[in-house]
Amino acid sequence: MAHRYAIYFSPATASHLGAFGAEWLGRTVEGQDLSPPTFAHIDDESWRVAVASPRAYGFHATLKPPFRLHDSYNENDFLSAVEAFSAKSNPVGLGSLSISQVSTFLALTSEYSDGIGRLASALVMDFDDFRAPLTTTDVAKYRMEDLSATQQSLIDRWGSPFVMGDFRFHMTLTGSLAAGEIGRFQDELRARFAPLIDFQFQVDEICIFQQRSEDEDLLLSHRFSLRADPV
Asked: How many domains is the chain built from?
């Protein structure tokens, strides 16, 4: 059994969007290292520092944040439940994606938010029984962040501050950047994403990522197709 599991949206590396993310982060979601990209606006070392944090998680959007599996369940129980959920769930339209500043980092954000917000909330609620309670160390890490009273209550109820009403779809591309770095990285990422700027995207799969031990990266382990018509 893995140390932690997460439910993500993560496009296949063979797709246009998945290739963009893998090339930028320098690894595939399966864990294959890739050569660093070539840059027009930043240098190699700045890139390595900037992508170190998102690279550990792979290119994705979080739907249900990483969690430890409750002792009452095993991995097969969890995967069977995800398969059943996927079989009765619809694909969700995202519309176009754009490079945006989110707090102090850069991410891809979506044109549409309602459908993906409902999907993420359903996953958080439906799979909460599979989540082991947060450890005191987990809670202490969250308490160090600048969180609202609502987000503090979300930690207590759902194990994360950025779920339910505080969920925002985003695909993280950098860690925290200094104010003077943001413009250069925006220019770099917008130039790289320009061929996809007019694409319309949807979430038609949900993915299980696993972290085998506390010191390892999260890696894709399973994909489940969402079935029926887009909403």
From this structure: 1
Around 121, how many Cα atoms within 13 Å sit in the side-chain half-sphere?
A: 12
Task: Give 115-171 pLDDT, tens digit per residue.
Answer: 999 999 999 999 999 999 999 888 888 877 788 999 999 999 999 999 999 999 999
- With CA atoms as reference, report the closest residue to 102 among 31, 27, 173, 17: 173
Phi, psi (deg, nearest 5) at residue 191 = -65, -40
* CB atoms inside a 10 Å sphere around CB 118: 14
pTM of the model: 0.95
Give 101-125 pLDDT, tens digit per residue.
999 999 999 999 999 999 999 999 9
Q: Is the dihedral of CA 170, 176, 179, 185 positive or negative?
A: negative
Which residues, 6 or more positions from 130, have their beta carbon under 8 angstroms from its beta carbon? 67, 69, 70, 73, 77, 78, 81
Residue 156 lies in a domain: no
Domain of 15 in residue numbering reads as: 4-133+168-225
Domain at 117, CATH number: 3.90.1140.10
Identity of residue 53: S
